[in-house]
Amino acid sequence: MIWSPAIGVLRSTLAFASFLTLSATPTASLFQPLWGIGLQPACKGINALNLFCAFGPNNLDLSKWVALGLLLLVMSGYFPQATSLMHYWISFSVFNGIAIPDGGDQITVVLTLLLIPICMTDPRRNHWSAAPNSTISTGWRRGWAIAGLIGVKIQVSILYLQSCIEKTAQTEWATGNNLYYTASGVFGFSDPVRVLLAPLLEHEATVSFLTWSVLALEFALGVTLVTPVVWRPYLFLLAALFHAGIALLMGLWSFALAMIAADLILTLPLTSVAFSPGFSLNGIRPAPGISRRNRPT
Questions:
Q1: DSSP states of 113-151
Q2: Which of 41, 59, 157, 279 is the most exposed place for a label (fewest CB within 10 A)?
Q3: CB-based contact 131:1 (threshold 8 Å)
Q4: Rounded CA gap, 99 and 31, in Å?
Q5: Average per-residue pLDDT in the chain?
Q6: What residues pair up with 279 in beta bridges, in sequence order?
Q7: How many Cβ atoms from other residues are within 10 Å of residue 187's Cβ?
């Protein structure tokens, strides 16, 4: 009934992606001065609420440790009602406070905001717990939770459609040569990866096929919500392999984790067993008040 361990997977994976960025990057690299802006974080306007402004510019290590501790609390699953607000605060702070944010940090800000109505109405103490009996999850609470979940799905769909459409307007993508330029660019593949992929990059047909396949996959994910339900597990598998490839080839691990988590929720239909009462990561067990005869299949 919406409040499912599937939501726990999304929240914890998003939190782990941010945790990975903060824990694996030196503080000096996170908060470098930016040309035209100055030292990060820029604690002005709304960004004065940034977590990394809370203890002052001379205590950024302390701020980072506080953020890491709060992210661990989010990943534990306890008290989603309170930690959902903390999670959004941290994701907002990371995206607007560090000098090297990426697309994963941006999507995390949006998704953690959309998760607030789901978490604030969650009757569970821990987001890893089984979904509650339907008699508990009725009325306005369920309505807000469903609205939040639909919002997540629509946002991820728009993300993929926008990405696909904008790519087709770029010459490198339209002509099928983008993979070649990505592999050769300063911010593309590392030297060992270039050597490994060299046989593929030497053939125009292969480069074009791989480049256009990215556009095809992004379009398919963008229209997932209007596709037959039976296709969606395969779309999720392709999306997970695609983003895992980005992580391995380009080192964008936090981005890949955030997108794989988003893809899971995108491809899970509202009628999925994952949103059934009694669902847990170990399978289905009857929730209180549900007999075995009426348990979901």
A1: HHHHHHHHT---SBTTSPPPPTTTS-THHHHHHHHHHHH
A2: 59
A3: yes
A4: 5
A5: 86
A6: 284
A7: 6
